[in-house]
Structure formats: C-alpha cells, structure tokens
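Homework help board

Subject: predicted structure for assignment chain

Our instructor gave us this sequence and asked us to write out the predicted structure in token form, then describe one feature. I got the tokens but I'm not sure how to describe them. Can anyone check?
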Amino acid sequence: MKSDFTTRVLSVVRRIPSGRVASYGQVAELTGRPGAARAVGNIMRRASVPGLPYHRVVAAGGRLGGYGGLELLKRQRLSAEGIEFSGARIRHFERIRIR
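My token output:
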C-alpha cells in the first residue's frame, strides 16, 4: 500500500511536461514536504508505475542523478524531448525546470 506522501510524489511526477524537468527537491516542495528530496529519490528508486516520466526528475543544479544505474538511458530520453546537456549537466536548467 502506498503512503499518502508516495501518492503525492507520483502525482507531481505525472504532471511534469515533456521538455521540462524537476529536481528531487522541487518535487518534495510541491508535495508539501520541503527538505524531503532524499525521500523522493527513494520513492523514485522503488516506484514502478508504467508510463510515469521518472526520467524528468533530476538532481539539484541540473545534474542527471540516478536512474536505476541507467543514466545514459535517462540522458537519451531527455535529449529526445529536446533537453540539451553541457557535460554532465542540463543546459539552461533554470529555464526548463518547472516552477
């Protein structure tokens, strides 16, 4: 059974549009639990709801963060949505992250 927090996290992730990203911290804030970025990361690691855009949740400052050890796949999915990279960081992170 999912906790209320998990349900809220997955709801926020579901609403991240293509071509945009949110940090783990932003997702935590949007659920009403600022400071719970690590908890969001743990939920992302365990969740397996088909069709959710998990790849759009990234680490602070535009770093990719984990993706079950499949960072290259995460990068490819984000690139397919038009997101550009500069080294290991998302270019123009402040412009494309959700508000």
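Reply (TA_rk): Your tokens look well-formed. For the description, you could write something like this. Strands lie at 22-23, 57-58, 85-86, 89-90. That's the kind of observation they're looking for.
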